[in-house]
Amino acid sequence: MKPAAAGCALLGGLCLALCLGGARGLPRSSGDSEWRKLIMVHHWPATVCKEVEDDCKDPPDYWTIHGLWADRAEQCNRSWPFHLEEIKDLLQDMRIYWPDVIHSPSNRSSFWKHEWEKHGTCVAQLDALDSQRKYFGKGLDLYRGLALNSMLQKLGILPSGNYYQVSDIKDALASLYGVVPKVQCLPPEQGEGVQTLGQIELCLTKDLQLRNCTEPGEPAGSWRGAGPARPTRSLEVCEDGPVFYPPPR
Fold it and tell me: Which residues contact 146 (CB under 8 A, 6 or more apart)?
């Protein structure tokens, strides 16, 4: 599993590694001033393929990046298009850790284009994320620093034909990261008996320090930031109870 090597970073160094930030004035949509936290979104490729009912060819067998999002904000600057040339030095790592699981290799930059235009243009009000190079570079840095794949392995939470309890996954991750994550599942189809683990979100302040994904009184729903042409059956916050963590195909 390729990210395992990146998981050697100690959690004690996260605050130092992640601590950057500050606000910057950029053209905004009417909603972007309302966002309060960043969401580092990891998804499980086998579940992504199941969600879109796509026979993905050789999906990664490790958690990959879905995106780095602002909560409650999207498409904040439609005049700031995506340019692949600006992240050319990141492409090798992007293809490994932030891959487009669904589309053919010839069209895989469309996923990064979507993430930049819908989410990157909102979080770019922060100095640490105020360019495409910084946005995708910081997403990769956070992925390596948080080391979700290694943490799940350390906790003994591995893909299996047996079921886990959602509360056990959340509590175990909270014990390591010191904050409450958000765990999302694909609801069962008719005939299926259990939900499927699909996405794990770790949240950060605008200063890029870990924080709880929810606060007392805050709704549990997620700002998914779903891509275009999503299926009607999509990820939701997991219900308490059993969950299937599917082995890679």
Answer: 14, 40, 177, 202
Q: Mean pLDDT per 10-residue run, the chain (249 residues)?
A: 49 44 39 79 94 81 97 90 96 96 79 96 96 98 98 97 97 98 94 94 97 73 45 83 93
Q: What is the pTM of this model?
A: 0.84
CA distance 85 to 111: 15
From the list 231, 228, 140, 243, the residue with the least C-alpha distance to 183 is 243
- Catalytic positions, please? 66, 115, 119
Q: Are 185 and 238 in contact (CB under 8 A)?
A: yes
Phi, psi of 242 (to 5 degrees): -70, 150
The identity of residue 182, as a single letter, is: K
Q: Give me the helices (H) in 65-128, please.
A: 91-97, 109-115, 121-123
